[in-house]
UniProtKB/TrEMBL annotation:
This is Hypoxanthine phosphoribosyltransferase. Belongs to the purine/pyrimidine phosphoribosyltransferase family. Its cofactor is Mg(2+). Its EC number is 2.4.2.8. It comes from Secundilactobacillus silagei JCM 19001. It is found in: Cytoplasm. One of its GO terms (biological process) is GMP salvage. Pathway: Purine metabolism; GMP biosynthesis via salvage pathway; GMP from guanine: step 1/1; Purine metabolism; IMP biosynthesis via salvage pathway; IMP from hypoxanthine: step 1/1.
Length: 179
């Protein structure tokens, strides 16, 4: 699996440092509050786990599962809700946690869907932000790394459900997904 990686963008140590930084920022901003963190499955599992370990306050978690890639290397533009959250977010401080912000379609969909439920506040934290991939306006409040417009895998990010378990974020060799 490591042989399929063109280059490593962010090592385990890089990711740990950014989780510490983001955790400190969120801890500062939410002091005295008990926000709900909503992780976007499946890619967020590693990041959300490591991020939450860096927080110094009580927090609640839930997960939502949406799909826009449907097994390919580019978003289809069609967002499918696979699993909704299980809790009422009305009047709550909510932080959406994403592995990567790319086209912006998924985030726009989630913001619209969750805003209808009247949270007190709605913020976004993403490990990776790929501004060159945007097709709709979308912005995260907390960003780990800005990344190039390349196909990334590892640390939760996948290609046809593989590579998620790599402990780093790397660029997948084009020959892997063009054959």
């Amino acid at each position: 699996m490591n042989n399929d990686i063109e280059r490593v963008l962010y090592s385990q140590d890089d990711i740990k440092a950014v989780c510490k930084r983001l955790g400190a920022d969120i801890t500062r901003d939410y002091a005295g509050k008990k926000p709900l963190f909503i992780g976007v499955l499946k890619g967020v599992i590693f990041f959300m786990t490591d991020l939450l370990r860096e927080l110094d306050f009580l927090a609640d978690i839930d997960f939502i599962d949406v799909s826009s890639y449907h097994g390919g290397t580019a978003s289809t533009g069609e967002i499918t809700l696979v699993h909704d959250i299980d809790v009422d977010i009305s009047g709550r401080d909510v932080i959406i946690v994403e592995d990567i912000l790319d086209t912006g379609r998924t985030l726009a969909y989630l913001r619209d869907r969750l805003s209808e439920r009247h949270p007190k506040s709605l913020k976004v934290c993403t490990l990776l932000d790929k501004p060159e991939g945007r097709v709709v306006e979308a912005k995260a409040d907390y960003v780990g790394f800005d990344v190039p417009n390349e196909f990334l895998v590892g640390y939760g990010l996948d290609y046809v459900e593989y590579y998620r378990n790599l402990p780093y974020v790397g660029v997948l060799k084009p020959e892997v997904y063009t054959n």
